[in-house]
């Protein structure tokens, strides 16, 4: 009986997809990405492939610089064209990491919860974005604390571009990982077989993050971008935490977490607008230059600064508009309590009273 059942199972089993077909790539994209990473790492073992492996893995554009206050020269990093290798490599790392989290954590949780397709997509999105947002917020706060912004807020614009273009290793890795993470979102749309509606929504905020982080990194507005990203990721981490608790259905007090996010969201929007105006309109105005200087990395022209400020303000206004519209629509759709119907007083006839007597 066991042999016959195995024969029937082998007959009903689907044949493997052809090699290099769409189904084959989607099913095995995690293994393909891990093989690529392994080949790059093996390149460190051979002399002829060592330069390529270093170009792909190790951050480039490093210099020994001594600033005022430093007792000795320290190693700093700049942005440049050689960062493309690290961005490509870290993008493949994110694809592999995404596949591992999806297969060994998210899929197992989803099988236990038995959710609908829409909830499954939302739950998987929050499972990936929530921890990344929390870690990114902590990483950005640590970099700013190490820089000393909490002691001197003017460090966000003082010393631009001489000191802003030279980054510590943590700042360099933070922005390289951010750029590669938002790039890896686009091939994930293909690997996850997302619908057009889901793809449209995720493409919007992924492209917004990618443009903002990339422009800030290569234009040396690192410190301002780190503050804004820390605020934004704090809001996102709380949002996705509340969504995870809500979709899991394991807790009854999800409303408290959503209320906390409802309070944090407008605070983040207002804080981002105030900091952007303070740095771009008032702080960097004293260091303005009429033309872009690519050699010194000075992009502090009036046109760039004004356009960057308009972009940030419009983004914050747009996000707050969607937030307010969602809550107004939710408020209007709330079921109204039915008005109590007054009871009619019943009067007995006098004849009935006499009969009862």
UniProtKB/TrEMBL annotation:
<dbReference type="GO" id="GO:0045048">
    <property type="term" value="P:protein insertion into ER membrane"/>
</dbReference>
<dbReference type="InterPro" id="IPR016447">
    <property type="entry name" value="Translocation_assoc_membrane"/>
</dbReference>
<feature type="transmembrane region" description="Helical">
    <location>
        <begin position="260"/>
        <end position="284"/>
    </location>
</feature>
<dbReference type="Pfam" id="PF03798">
    <property type="entry name" value="TRAM_LAG1_CLN8"/>
</dbReference>
<dbReference type="GO" id="GO:0005789">
    <property type="term" value="C:endoplasmic reticulum membrane"/>
</dbReference>
<feature type="transmembrane region" description="Helical">
    <location>
        <begin position="165"/>
        <end position="183"/>
    </location>
</feature>
<feature type="domain" description="TLC">
    <location>
        <begin position="121"/>
        <end position="334"/>
    </location>
</feature>
<keyword id="KW-0813">Transport</keyword>
<feature type="transmembrane region" description="Helical">
    <location>
        <begin position="127"/>
        <end position="145"/>
    </location>
</feature>
<feature type="transmembrane region" description="Helical">
    <location>
        <begin position="204"/>
        <end position="222"/>
    </location>
</feature>
<feature type="transmembrane region" description="Helical">
    <location>
        <begin position="304"/>
        <end position="324"/>
    </location>
</feature>
<feature type="transmembrane region" description="Helical">
    <location>
        <begin position="87"/>
        <end position="106"/>
    </location>
</feature>
<feature type="region of interest" description="Disordered">
    <location>
        <begin position="337"/>
        <end position="357"/>
    </location>
</feature>
<feature type="transmembrane region" description="Helical">
    <location>
        <begin position="228"/>
        <end position="248"/>
    </location>
</feature>
<feature type="transmembrane region" description="Helical">
    <location>
        <begin position="32"/>
        <end position="50"/>
    </location>
</feature>
<comment type="similarity">
    <text>Belongs to the TRAM family.</text>
</comment>
<dbReference type="GO" id="GO:0006616">
    <property type="term" value="P:SRP-dependent cotranslational protein targeting to membrane, translocation"/>
</dbReference>
<dbReference type="InterPro" id="IPR006634">
    <property type="entry name" value="TLC-dom"/>
</dbReference>
<keyword id="KW-1133">Transmembrane helix</keyword>
<protein>
    <recommendedName>
        <fullName>TLC domain-containing protein</fullName>
    </recommendedName>
</protein>
<keyword id="KW-0472">Membrane</keyword>
<keyword id="KW-0653">Protein transport</keyword>
<keyword id="KW-0812">Transmembrane</keyword>
